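Show me any protein, keeping tokens residue-aligned.
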Amino acid sequence: MNAPPYSTAKVEVVRIPDGVQQDVVAVEEPLELRIGGQPVAVTMRTPGHDEELALGFALSEGLQPAGARLPDDLAANTIELDAPGFDPSRLARSFYTTSSCGVCGKGALEAVAVESVRVAGDFRIEAALVAALPDKLRAAQPAFEATGGLHATGLFDERGELLCLREDVGRHNAMDKVIGWAFLEGRLPLAHSLLCVSGRLSFELVQKAAVAGCPVLVAVGAPSSLAVELARDRGVTLCGFVRNGRVNVYSEPWRVLS
């Protein structure tokens, strides 16, 4: 499985003691999101699946998008969102995001908390299936294999089958791309699915999973205190340090059957 050509680039590197060689790194470029032709956000991302990224971002921000497309002026690194209910006064709040942390640049934590219904339903999953997800995710990451520098999010069904995987320099971008894909496929809410991420569990990733209606969020890394707090409040089962057959369940443990 080869990495998409737009996701990686070759650079010179001095390897000591071997000298000058070529290395493959992940591409990072800005993406401007517009509504009605007006810029509303800039995010640093790995190019590819930009419409999905825009839709996932908009959904997570409570913008209720109808679609996404290239802008009329065909400006590079720009996506136009169709969001009929968007209130332009929201531009008073900074939407600037970076590839490392989607909440950077926002005015206050209260501005980040997007309204979402509590995740309900009787969805349950075997612990052994949860434990297997990170390895399945890792096996399906071509750009990470080439660069070692990309995060990934995978959407899995109740049988542990991979439905969609996206990679990006930003962990929240990878999640947005998957949620945007699910939106386009008519799969939202993700009531009988699992999301698995390659890194740690942040507040924002839990927020995005909750907005998408996903009952189980899995990661190989650690959760933050705020991620656990939000997961408990929104009814999301949060599984961290999922590696070597072990699973730590920080919220709603009744969904994970041992």
